[in-house]
Amino acid sequence: MAMNARSASQALRAFRPIAIRPAVIPACRSYATSSEPDLKTTFKEVLPAKRELLKKVKALGDKVIGEVKVENTLGGMR
Length: 78
What we know:
This protein has four helices and two strands. The chain is 60% helix and 5% strand. By secondary structure, the chain is mainly alpha-helical.
């Protein structure tokens, strides 16, 4: 009797002891309670520097990159 690979792996997984099975729920909980900063905090830290960079790039709007101006590339980023 031939078993395909998928059903064979499912059968072997059923016989795996409970102690070896991965614990999914505790891993999710520890991830949800991690000490990483939230999105608002990250934005507050990063945005001022990005705004300054954008001002510098906009100041170079008349410069040409190949056949396109810098201001056209900024408009295309929207």
